Amino acid sequence: LQESESENRLDGETASDSESKSEFGGSSPVPTSDDTPEVLNRALSNLSSRWKNWWVRGILTLAMITFFFIIIYLGPMVLMTIVMCVQIKCFHEIITIGYNVYHSYDLPWFRTLSWYFLLCVNYFFYGETVTDYFFTLVQREEPLRILSKYHRFISFALYLTGFCMFVLSLVKKHYRLQFYMFGWTHVTLLIVVTQSHLIIHNLFEGMIWFIVPISCVICNDIMAYMFGFFFGRTPLIKLSPKKTWEGFIGGFFSTVLFGLLLSYVMSGYRCFTCPVEFNNDTNSFTVDCEPSELFQLQEYNIPVVLHSVLGWKTVRMYPFQIHSIALSTFASLIGPFGGFFASGFKRAFKIKDFANTIPGHGGIMDRFDCQYLMATFVNVYIASFIRGPNPSKLIQQFLTLRPDQQLHIFNTLKAHLVDRGVLGSLEDA
Questions:
Q1: I need a surface site. Which of 329, 347, 367, 424 has the fewest CB within 10 A?
Q2: Basic and acidic residues bias located where (predicted)?
């Protein structure tokens, strides 16, 4: 009973919160009900609520992990489709919360405009991705070439249309509320669409950059729950009364170890380490290449202090395993703050979960609150420490230039290589 009360108690509500509730009509979203399948309810009826929740979460977690393995096996295209579906569902869950507050005023176009802006933002982000990764296909088809050439102008025109529709929908005496919801939609787009776009960018760098970070977040979530369930005594943060220091620390060490082991296994397979590229001849994605130095075993010296403890002087590792330590550390120490942020959001609107899509786990957004923060970190990490200039993209841009521009670049590059001694003299060349 104490656990149930602490979970449902809303701490830190101020006078401004009360004012907000009165301004929004005093209506709040209806808390989610128990949607545990009847089969599980009957099978676990003799258990206490604490252990019943443990088994429900465990069974559904195993089911989700199995589904995760299946979509990885099905390949990059299915993964991208799933990311898009998750993005749409997360957007729907957040917008629905706003709509539950907003609909009592019967104001026009909120839900329509929200989905319209989602379409515009997706068109902007993924239109650029298509141009980058499907360049040959785009140049081959006249309609796609036109859409690619004027992509940003079309995106701006679409957004401007939605902006004008919003202005025309303003209703006297409810201006402030409508601007609240306009901001709500745009913050949701920033959180959901931008991060899912970065996840797909990470996937194109190689499936290992997609799978390892996501798996580290999943591992940390599971192990923090397990350590907290069995050993948790010290509360970690008021926003989530059930989170404990024991779970937080246990999840950290477990995730770092898991990241090292998973990276070692995956680094030996080209299907995981090679960048995902579109083959224009077969019109399909390919993941075949010569592994980079990141995925070739190298020998590292162990610090002298650890010689007596480990009994080794050197160790053979993939360089990517060192990067996995950074990824798993972020997933364990900073990633949970995405969950804390989501907890604060839910408490502000007096709801336990974003939705009841997954019994025992809440909505899709409840499962991906940490993943979105992780996706941004991975993208920044790759851009800062891993990725260099991409020769294939430079060649694609070079081929779109006029012949005189191409000839100028060719002569400039030739002279540069001669100066560096890579080529012979200009006369010999």
A1: 424
A2: 1-22
Quote the pTM value.
0.80
Q: For residue 235, which of 5, 411, 6, 70 has the smallest C-alpha distance?
A: 6
Number of structural domains (the chain) is 1
CA 216 to chain centre: 13
In a domain, residue 1? The reply is no
Give every residue of the chain whose pLDDT is below 50, as ranges: 1-33, 426-427, 429
Is 358 in contact with 364 (CB distance < 8 Å)? yes
Q: What is the pLDDT of residue 329?
A: 96
Provide the residue range defining the domain that includes 196.
Answer: 40-67+76-106+170-386
DSSP code, position 382: I
With respect to residue 188, please indicate whether it lies within any of the assigned structural domains.
yes
CB atoms within 10 A of CB 420: 8
Other C-beta atoms closer than 10 Å to the C-beta of 4 total 10
How far, in Å, CA of 231 to CA of 183, rounded?
A: 42
Alpha-carbon distance of 249 to 253, in angstroms, equals 7
Q: What is the pLDDT of residue 272?
A: 92
| pLDDT on residue 174 | 83
Name every residue whose Cβ is closer than 8 Å to that of residue 387 and which is 6 or more positions away in sequence.
205
